[in-house]
Design goal:
It contains five helices and 21 strands. It is an alpha+beta fold and 345 residues long. It folds into two domains: 239 residues, Jelly Rolls (Sandwich), CATH 2.60.120.580; 75 residues, Acetamidase/Formamidase-like domains (Endonuclease I-creI, Roll). It has a nine-stranded mixed beta sheet with strand order 1-5-17-7-15-18-19-21-20. It is globular. The N and C termini lie far apart (67 Å).
């Protein structure tokens, strides 16, 4: 009789066990409100707005970086300006030193300084039917050539996935988040959201679309991930200081990697490995990106340093990521396909 009772108890427990396995990796939604954004900074001391575990997935909505007033003056219909942007513009008082409205921070349990936060970008959707591009005096790569302000509203056709820049000019959409990062070391204090750095941030890397993975060194407990600066598309360099600026909704999975130890952010697409260099000097950026690629090839592909240097020269491509955010960016891409070939006997 006692065996029957035990068996019955096991059967009754099975649904609970299945439920526990099913919910082991939870899914969350995070929308931008005056209480769930950091306006213009990454900071190790700021309180998290959401706590998740390694392996969890979060759908995060981000906002266009501009004011409702300026968007309306540029021609955006009043009913197309998001209410959340109005609320945040009116209610958030702790602003700067940067200008980006970042959703977060998110605390990932068990992430500790020295670890790496693996951010899988599972999906990206447009949140509004328009983007803008703008430049202003003293900003951009050619500030002396354009010493005045101008903004252009650019309709987005989500069905055809093109931006209607002008009659006869359509730009294919490749949505990505310009800014994805975690907190810098606590001793740094508030880090301006504009210049990218060791904790990633405003990378403005157009290759980090849906289906790619970003690897970020962790410098604070919980990592404190933030995301924003949505772009519907961009050219390498982002020369006038803005891209196709818009609001996006992204789905991210966070993994704490205790088996990885990085000095600088790295990334991976379905077809390429990416290393990055971030500095206010373009030559220094390039040096960092190349050295990081050599380190990747030595550590992950087990090449000698000599072969890694040679392979970087014959198979990897350097790109100017951006030129206009204080720290410039250069990234180096090497195709995965070259490592799949089997040697011929």
């Amino acid at each position: 009789m006692k065996y029957r009772i035990a068996a019955l108890g096991l059967l009754l427990a099975l649904p609970l066990l299945v439920a526990q396995q099913t919910t082991a990796q939870a899914t969350f939604t995070l929308k931008p409100t005056p209480k769930t954004v950091a306006w213009g900074y990454y900071d190790a001391k700021v309180a998290p707005v959401l706590r998740v575990k390694s392996g969890d997935t979060v759908e995060i909505q981000t906002l266009i970086t501009n004011s409702p007033e300026r968007l309306e003056k540029a021609g955006v219909p009043k009913d197309q300006v998001e209410q959340s942007l109005r609320d945040i513009t009116e209610q958030v008082k702790d602003k700067g030193p940067g200008g980006h409205i970042l959703t977060g921070p998110i605390y990932i349990e068990d992430a500790q300084p020295g670890d790496v936060l693996e951010v899988k970008i599972l999906g990206i959707k447009l949140a509004i039917p328009y983007a803008y591009n703008a430049f202003g005096p003293g900003r951009g790569f050619l500030p002396d050539d354009f010493p005045y302000s101008k903004i252009k509203i650019i309709p987005l056709d989500e069905k055809r996935m093109v931006a209607k820049f002008a009659p006869g000019i359509e730009i294919p959409l490749h949505p990505f988040f310009g800014s994805m990062g975690d907190a810098p070391p606590e001793t740094v204090g508030k880090w301006n959201s504009a210049p990218p750095w060791i904790m990633a941030g405003n990378l403005d890397n157009k290759d980090l679309v849906a289906g790619t993975t970003l690897y970020i060194p962790v410098f604070a407990p919980g990592a404190l991930f933030e995301v924003g600066d949505g772009h519907a598309g961009q050219g390498d360099g982002e020369v006038d200081i803005t891209a196709l600026e818009t609001s996006l909704i992204g789905t991210f999975q966070f993994m704490v990697r205790k088996d990885m130890h990085l000095k600088w952010p790295r990334a991976e697409t379905p077809t390429h490995y990416i290393t990055m260099g971030l500095n206010d000097d373009l030559n220094a950026c390039t040096t960092l990106a190349v050295r990081e690629m050599i380190d990747f090839l030595v550590t992950e592909k087990h090449l000698s340093r000599d072969d890694a240097y040679m392979l970087s020269s014959v198979a990897a491509d350097l790109h100017i990521t951006e030129l206009v955010d204080g720290n410039k960016g250069v990234h180096m891409m090497i195709p995965k396909a070259i490592f799949a070939a089997s040697p011929k006997n």
